[in-house]
Amino acid sequence: MDLTAPSERDEGAEVTTTPSKAVPRPTPETQPFWDGCAAGELRLQRCSSCDAHYFPPRPFCPTCLSDQVTWETASGRGTLHTYVINHRAAPGFEAPYAIAVVQLDEGPRMMSNIVGIENTPENLELDMALEVTFEPRGDMMLPVFQPASTGGGQ
Amino acid sequence: MSIRGRIAIIGAAETTELGRIPHLSAIGLHADAARNAIADAGIAKSDIDGIACAGQSPVAVAQYLGITPSYVDGTSVGGCSFMLHVRHAAAAIDAGMCEMVLVTHGESGKSRVGMAGFGGGGDGSLQGQFEVPYGPTGPPTMFPIGVLRYMKELGLTHEQLASVAVVQREWAAQNPRAMMRDLVTVDDVLSSRMVAYPMHLLECCLVTDGGGAVIVTSAERARAMDLPNPPVYLMGTGESSETPMVSQMEDFTTSKAFRVAGAKAFAEAGISHADVDHLMIYDAFAHLPIYGLEDLGFVGRGEAGAFIAEGNTKPGGSLPLNTNGGGLSYTHTGMYGMFAIQESVRQVRGTAAAQVPNVKISIAHGVGGMFAASGTLVLTNQEL
Ligand SMILES: [Zn+2]
């Protein structure tokens, strides 16, 4: 544990700075992921020898260290693996909101937000089906997830 | 080859004050704890030839104290860094690289006086790209992210989780230095403010100022010294790391770093769980002792919540746990691991505020980051 950042019990540490949400800054290794988001696609890397997807992006497979890896467009489908509901808003956010971990159908998991549904413990059932959507963030597009559309089989 | 029984902690002390210490900067807290530990060991500063710390640079702390070290360790993996410092110092001393290492901690967590900025990587780091944009506001909104998964898979209840805070407050009530000493009930915990569902305020650690230091040397040298306090011997040690991104944990119901570090320490110590008289598990949040009890092997998977709720870890219980009151009730500066070590040392010395009878073996188990890293120390008052 390392709580060098002021924590919840540190009264008076309310965030009152610029009301804009944090914007990710791509690196050369992650740029294709963010290019995919801008194009409305969730892209994941897959190792040719392991035949497995992985995340977050890096130019080699974290299992076998091979650099024979390719970028692929993921299904964008997943399930709600776990989450917290944050009651202390980050800049630009309106609390309470869920910070979730999504289990992607391809195998990797990623942190995300859940949109299109009020973020309550009753609404957010673990393992519920989700699908990706993208929301503008600065000049980037950020992958977030919404409840999967019923009968969506496309 | 092992350091089992070959290394001793001969000095251990916390800062003179704990809680709110606005008149001391972070490095000043390191120095206050260091001076107290040097006095506790009854040594001269010139006996120290090694320095280790986190938060502040070991270079800065050595210069501040007027020490010219021949061993420098700045391992900084969060709150368990001090367990790793002791482990590394043990190896270095055993290898003859140095003879006596001072490990220090000091943090102005509450007052924020002279605190070094924490890197964290910025918006181009992997955390900056793939976690921060989703709105976490500090550890309370990130560290417990696996708790709901644990609840679903292993049946932990909200009441059992709350009981962690209730039991630790019972220990804190016996400790005059603990910040929170009034007894609380499960209802009190569950009706305290929601911080990040499912975690309530009383399931989150305190934010305080303070520090601590230990002095490590060889058991051989400890035996040759005329020490004012009995030496505490190192029986076993372990360390590991998993991921700086909590969202990338392999399994949200168990810490790989805990399992690796714990198993290593048990194996080196050559003990079974029944041999352990006293246990410290770094409790930044109420779920940490639950994960720790299971990942260190004290109980089976999914059993820790009931184990705590049924009173096994409370005063008079079979496995006294977090007997200073823990990060939830005693103190939590930011990197609490040093305080877990201090309480283990006090318990095996027999000098704790809430002393457990006849402690021969104590374990201090720490976490770094949010299940990012881990360190385990097995301590004993027995010569091996
Ligand atoms: Zn591979």
From TrEMBL, chain A:
Highest taxon of source: Bacteria
PANTHER family (UniProt xref): BLR3430 PROTEIN
Region (Disordered): 1-29
A Pfam family recorded for this sequence: zf-ChsH2
InterPro entries associated with the record: ChsH2_C, ChsH2_Znr, NA-bd_OB-fold, Thioester_dehydratase-like
ChsH2 C-terminal OB-fold domain location: 71-135
Protein name: Bll2959 protein
Domain ChsH2 rubredoxin-like zinc ribbon intervals: 34-69
